[in-house]
């Protein structure tokens, strides 16, 4: 029982094997890709492993505090930002191995020519709930 | 209305339905429907015989569901309309239910979910909230689990150890929703202990009570983790400790030691010390030796190394630690602590920071980060 984030990048991930930008696919290939993602999420709901999935628009704004009584400062977007997150899926699985298996399947989503994209996904564990068992801590 | 009392009737009602010939999955749904009905109806119209009421309503729900199912699918139903007189439910029916819900064919998360619903009487929504997943996901997890065990005969003997592992998971994992999972695990283990006379069941119950007794002192008002040595011992629940110790002693007297009894013995030695300094670390190390013999778990050897550090000094603890794989969870945290005790504050600060980076949860990360910060700020003055 552990949650993982499967992170998809617009930019920042290593180049996939089937590296053709989406706008150069055929419309049918795009439909097949979208359907694959939808089926994948549906399947995870059925296995009781799905938590959440969201897609993000690429255009973001940087915001920061600018001192008492002043409006926040905004900046960007910066075209040179290395990491640009496209979206995520959150899964709740019994093991790290299962998380790897699912990430592998998601990365096999079809792209140009109907072939798997082999897209690199970033797999990040969530922090677990705090254990009830305090003796686990050094010094505890 | 006492919801815990209502839920404690769940396994009894469910097993009556199964004994009458209902299949487990359908019976379990019917019992859930009856529980929901009870929550709605009882406040205004409390029944004289709560269990009898639930059995009647659940059986009716089961028949309704079966009838519409049968009509819809036009398949032959071999369900009797009238309840069979049936044998008086055997004493160990509740036990059979625990075995089924912890069946080895289930994954740990499925076994946990099914146990909380079928034995614990929690709703799917409550279970989903406790594990922070959508209700639809949890519903699927539970119905898959029911399908997985649909071929298992209800009266097959099971392995108590698998049940104990599931209950221990409920106790240790999960988030805080409106259900107190640790208290629920204690309730379910207590109920199991009433259904079967087994020293390890008693051992687990004792362990849970002893850990739970310290819960109030385990976190500071701001949510920060308070390690055992710094806990305010006046806030420990002495009644729970006394009960845990009594249960443990009775179990140990049976001379069938198991890992939960050994862990409970360690917890009891901590509970028994009026101050951290008075902890009987020599005996704790001996219990860790027993535990290592029983489980051969590297985590146990890690905890043993920390105990050795207390019993024989930090150098001895570090030597014990050096024999272990340093990729073990919390190995770096243990090394940091022992280095600090040995007076090597520079290494300790570095190791605390490294341990924080590898912490498995937020509370530990923050605790370890603070330890590093504390030592680093000492160095500045």
Topology:
The complex is a heterodimer of chains A (140) and B (381).
Chain A: E1 2-11, H1 27-47, E2 50-55, E3 62-64, E4 73-75, E5 84-93, H2 96-107, E6 122-125
Antiparallel strand pairs in A: 1-5, 1-6, 2-5, 3-4
Chain B: H1 3-8, H2 10-19, H3 24-41, H4 50-73, H5 93-101, H6 108-119, H7 124-130, H8 135-148, H9 160-172, H10 181-195, H11 199-212, H12 215-218, H13 238-252, H14 259-272, H15 281-295, H16 298-312, H17 314-322, H18 331-341, H19 345-358, H20 362-380
Helix pairs in contact in B: 2-3, 2-4, 3-4, 5-6, 6-8, 6-9, 7-8, 9-10, 9-11, 10-11, 11-13, 11-14, 13-14, 14-15, 15-16, 16-17, 17-18, 18-19, 19-20
State the total count of DSSP E strands of chain A: 6
Shape of chain B: elongated
Low-confidence stretches of chain B: 79-85
Mean pLDDT of chain B: 91
Secondary structure class of chain B reads mainly alpha
| Total helical elements of chain A | 2
Distance between the termini of chain A: 25 Å
Protein described:
The complex is a heterodimer of chains A (140) and B (381). By secondary structure, chain A is an alpha+beta fold. Chain A has helices spanning 27-47, 96-107, and strands at 2-11, 50-55, 62-64, 73-75, 84-93, 122-125. The relative contact order of chain A is 0.30. With 381 residues, chain B is mostly helical. The chains are: A alpha+beta (140), B mainly alpha (381).
Please name the defining characteristics of this protein.
heterodimer, A: 140 residues, alpha+beta, four-stranded antiparallel beta sheet, two-stranded antiparallel sheet, 26% strand, B: 381 residues, mainly alpha, 68% helix
Gist of the model:
The complex is a heterodimer of chains A (140) and B (381). Chain A has helices at 27-47, 96-107, and strands spanning 2-11, 50-55, 62-64, 73-75, 84-93, 122-125. With 140 residues, chain A is α+β, with helices and mostly antiparallel strands.
């Amino acid at each position: 029982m552990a949650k993982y984030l499967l992170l998809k990048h617009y930019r920042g991930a290593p180049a996939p094997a089937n590296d053709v930008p989406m706008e150069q696919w055929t419309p049918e290939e795009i439909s097949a890709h979208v359907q694959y993602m939808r089926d994948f999420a549906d399947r995870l709901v059925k296995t009781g492993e799905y938590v959440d999935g969201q897609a993000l628009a690429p255009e973001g704004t940087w915001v920061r505090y600018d001192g008492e009584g002043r409006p926040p400062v905004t900046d960007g977007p910066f075209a040179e930002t290395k990491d640009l997150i496209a979206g995520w899926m959150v899964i709740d699985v019994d093991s790290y191995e299962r998380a790897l298996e699912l990430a592998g399947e998601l990365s096999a989503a079809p792209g140009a020519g109907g072939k798997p994209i082999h897209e690199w996904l970033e797999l990040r564990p969530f922090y677990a709930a705090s254990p009830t068992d305090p003796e686990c801590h050094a010094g505890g | 209305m006492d919801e815990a009392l209502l839920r404690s009737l769940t396994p009894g009602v469910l097993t009556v339905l199964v004994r009458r010939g209902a299949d487990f999955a359908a019976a379990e749904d019917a019992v859930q429907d009856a529980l929901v009905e009870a929550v709605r109806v009882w406040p205004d119209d409390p029944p004289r015989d709560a269990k009898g009421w639930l059995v009647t309503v659940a059986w009716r729900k089961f028949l309704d569901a079966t009838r519409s199912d049968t009509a819809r699918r036009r398949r032959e139903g071999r369900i009797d309309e009238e309840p069979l007189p049936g044998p008086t439910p055997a004493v160990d029916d509740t036990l059979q239910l625990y075995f089924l819900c912890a069946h080895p064919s289930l994954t740990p998360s499925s076994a946990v979910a099914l146990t909380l619903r079928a034995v614990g009487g929690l709703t799917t929504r409550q279970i989903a909230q406790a594990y922070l997943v959508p209700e639809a996901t949890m519903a699927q997890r539970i119905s898959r689990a029911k399908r997985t065990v649909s071929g298992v005969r209800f009266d097959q003997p099971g392995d108590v150890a698998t049940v104990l592992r599931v209950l221990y998971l409920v106790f240790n994992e999960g988030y805080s929703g409106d259900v107190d999972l640790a208290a629920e695990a204690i309730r379910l283990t207590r109920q199991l202990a009433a259904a079967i006379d087994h020293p390890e069941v008693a051992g687990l119950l004792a362990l849970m009570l002893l850990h739970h007794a310290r819960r109030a002192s385990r976190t500071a008002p701001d949510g920060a983790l308070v390690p055992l040595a710094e806990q305010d011992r006046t806030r420990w629940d002495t009644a729970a400790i006394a009960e845990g110790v009594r249960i443990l002693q009775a179990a140990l007297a049976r001379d069938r030691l198991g890992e939960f009894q050994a862990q409970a013995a360690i917890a009891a030695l901590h509970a028994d010390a009026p101050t951290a300094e008075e902890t009987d670390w020599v005996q704790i190390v001996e219990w860790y030796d027993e535990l290592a013999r029983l489980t051969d778990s590297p985590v146990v050897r890690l905890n043993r190394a920390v105990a050795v550090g207390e019993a024989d000094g930090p150098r001895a603890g570090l030597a014990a630690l050096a024999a272990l794989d340093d990729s073990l969870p919390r190995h770096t945290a243990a090394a940091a602590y022992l280095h600090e005790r040995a007076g090597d504050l520079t290494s300790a600060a570095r190791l605390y920071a490294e341990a924080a980076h590898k912490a498995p949860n937020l509370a530990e990360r923050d605790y370890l980060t603070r330890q590093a910060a504390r030592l680093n700020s000492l160095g500045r003055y």
